[in-house]
């Protein structure tokens, strides 16, 4: 097993990785910006190194500073968490070029799946269902219009290099397509340094389903069930649950088989997620993208399978077998994750601030992965995620009830907070029924 680990991230995911590493007897190193010096993940690591100012480009995305910290502290491996440098192939290569262990998939897999058009084409060749769309980037508005005529309206305009729900827009006719094409292309150039745009069929009513995969050290790829991720605001998830109330055993088997094929197509190692769109009218599913990293919502998979995915990541990176029998994976119960964000619960606009009260709920089946505590400050420099509230119960109805109680027992004062939104959602008849789609939040507003 790896002996020392530098966590190239911040907040709740850094703290969560450190917790597992320390349980395994691994020496932990945190890197942090000036703004994060007093956060729990910094205080709980065995060592901590300041890598730059608040601006993430000068700290958490500063490859040279992070590698220097690893050398300074004698780190043996680097875990990137999610976001920041986690899907940066050049960083992965630099880690390994410096003689360190990269806790993640190969740079080649990251590159292969990082471009949505290339990923679509790879998946189609591997027999994974893909939605009707472009094979090559639409190089101009006119080309986009021609592709949309072939595919059929409505269409989704997507940044090929995008991710996390960014760089996407729906168009229901040619005029809208021309407007959105220009917007998405400009956004993609600014945000990702790549203005490539693809056009795909847009499904007005759709569910967002993803499958957790793990590429093992022996070369096998296994699937650990699906997660329902359809509760979204601005194309970004705010609540996830597993198993999905929309997925039958037969559909689950098909989704997992397709996800394994996707991983095998790029010789995938370590944790990853294959995201799909599910048409509830036909039960057809289509490949959306592959996240070549650990997902924010991984704890709900851990809850129903009884595994620690960070431990499994570290075992794969160390060349070790998993803690479980890949041929006898079994899940039980139901789990829900709520992303507790520092944001207005009505309009979902960021609302950072100093935390004066922070009381986490406790009890059977309740887990909180938090990045903050009373006396710390949520700054505007980073994502608004403060904590993840995870509940587990024998069935979905019990999990919803447990989530209601946990939300009511979570006290946060200082920054704005979306806990009131979750109280509303958990009582929403559409959500409670299980028959919902990605439009549920907009219908609540």
From TrEMBL:
Domain Biotin carboxylation: 1-445
Residue span, ATP-grasp domain: 120-318
Pfam family, one: Biotin_carb_C
Keywords: ATP-binding, Biotin, Ligase, Nucleotide-binding
Keyword Repeat: no
InterPro entries given in the database record: ATP-grasp, BC-like_N, Biotin_carboxylase_complex, Biotin_carboxylation_dom, Biotin_COase_C, CPAse_ATP-bd, PreATP-grasp_dom_sf, Rudment_hybrid_motif
PANTHER family per UniProt: CARBOXYLASE:PYRUVATE/ACETYL-COA/PROPIONYL-COA CARBOXYLASE, UREA AMIDOLYASE
Protein name (Swiss-Prot/TrEMBL): Biotin carboxylase N-terminal domain-containing protein
């Amino acid at each position: 097993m790896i002996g020392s680990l530098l966590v190239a991230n911040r907040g709740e995911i850094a703290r969560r990785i450190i917790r597992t590493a320390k349980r395994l007897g691994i020496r932990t190193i945190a890197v942090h910006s000036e703004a994060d010096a007093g956060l729990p993940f910094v205080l709980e690591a065995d060592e901590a190194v300041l890598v730059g100012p608040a601006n993430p480009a000068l700290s958490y995305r500063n490859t040279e500073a992070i590698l220097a910290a690893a050398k300074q502290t004698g780190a043996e491996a680097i875990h990137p968490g999610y976001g920041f440098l986690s899907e940066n192939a050049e960083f992965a290569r630099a880690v390994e070029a410096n003689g360190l262990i990269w806790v993640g998939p190969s740079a080649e897999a990251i590159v292969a799946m990082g471009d949505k058009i290339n990923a679509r084409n790879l998946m189609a060749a591997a027999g994974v269902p893909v939605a009707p769309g472009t094979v090559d980037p639409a190089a101009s508005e006119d080309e986009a219009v021609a592709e949309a005529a072939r595919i059929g309206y409505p269409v989704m305009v997507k940044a090929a290099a995008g991710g996390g729900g960014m760089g996407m827009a729906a168009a229901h006719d040619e005029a809208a397509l021309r407007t959105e094409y220009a917007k998405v292309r400009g956004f993609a150039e600014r945000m990702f340094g790549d203005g490539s745009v693809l056009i795909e069929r847009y499904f007005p009513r759709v569910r967002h389903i993803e499958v957790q995969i793990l590429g093992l050290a022996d070369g096998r790829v296994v699937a650990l069930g699906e997660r329902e991720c359809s509760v979204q605001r601005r194309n970004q998830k705010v609540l996830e649950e597993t198993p999905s109330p929309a997925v039958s055993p037969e559909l689950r088997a098909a989704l997992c088989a397709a996800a394994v094929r996707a991983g095998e197509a790029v010789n995938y190692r370590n944790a990853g997620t294959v995201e799909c769109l599910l048409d509830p009218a036909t039960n057809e599913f289509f490949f959306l993208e592959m996240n070549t990293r650990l997902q924010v919502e991984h704890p709900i998979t851990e809850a129903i399978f009884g595994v620690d995915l960070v431990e499994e990541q570290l075992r794969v990176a160390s060349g070790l077998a998993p803690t479980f029998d890949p041929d006898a994976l079994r899940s039980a119960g139901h789990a829900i994750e709520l992303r507790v964000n520092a944001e207005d619960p009505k309009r979902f606009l960021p609302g950072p601030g100093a935390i004066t009260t922070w009381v986490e709920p406790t009890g059977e089946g309740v887990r909180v992965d938090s990045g903050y505590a009373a006396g710390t400050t949520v700054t505007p420099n980073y994502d608004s995620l403060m904590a993840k509230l995870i509940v587990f119960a024998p069935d979905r109805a019990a999990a919803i009830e447990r989530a209601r109680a946990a939300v009511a027992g979570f006290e946060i004062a200082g920054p704005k907070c979306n806990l009131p939104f979750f109280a509303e959602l958990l009582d929403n008849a559409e959500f409670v029924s299980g028959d919902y789609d990605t439009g549920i939040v907009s219908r609540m507003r």
